[in-house]
C-alpha cells in the first residue's frame, strides 16, 4: 500500500503537530505502508520521513529541482524523485497511491488538498482523502466545505469525497472504510 501525505515544512509549529505526525509515521511504517510526500527535510515533512525511516518504513520524496538547489531535500529517503516544477510534483504525489492524507500545513498543503478534492469530484482521482484535524486545526475548512454543500456550490454526495479524523490512530481505519468513489463521479460533478 502507498499513501501520499501532505504536510508542512515549517519547523516553528507547535509540538502537538510534530507528535501527531510521529504517531502517524510510526503507524504507517508498522503497517508496511509506503509514504509518498513532498521530499522536504524540515518541519512536519522532515519529522514524517525521519520517524517512518527510523521505524523501518519506506519513504518516497517528490521534490522540484529548484528546492534541491537550496538544499530543502531530504538526503536519506528510500527514494527521492526530482521533478521540473510544482505541477509535476503534485501530479506524481498522487500517481498510483492508495490514499491521500492531509496533515496540518500552510498554503502549499491547502493548495494540494484543494486540487485533489477537485480531482476526486471530477472522478479523476478516486482514492480516499483523509484530513487529520489535529487539535481542530481544520475546523474552518470543514465548516467551509459544509457551507459549500449547504449553499449548493457542491452536491450533498460530495461530502463523501473526504473524511476528517481527529487522531493519527484513526487515519488507517478511515482509509479502509472510506466510501467507494469512481470515475462516474464526473456525471454528478455539476450541481
From TrEMBL:
GO terms for cellular component: cytosol. Signal peptide: none annotated. It catalyses: AMP + H2O = D-ribose 5-phosphate + adenine. It comes from the Bacteria. The keyword Hydrolase applies. It is an enzyme of class 3 (hydrolase). Keywords: Cytokinin biosynthesis, Hydrolase. Coiled coil: none annotated. GO terms for biological process: cytokinin biosynthetic process. GO terms for molecular function: AMP nucleosidase activity. Its EC number is 3.2.2.n1. NCBIfam families: Rossman fold protein, TIGR00730 family (TIGR00730). Belongs to the LOG family. This is Cytokinin riboside 5'-monophosphate phosphoribohydrolase. It comes from Tenuifilum thalassicum.
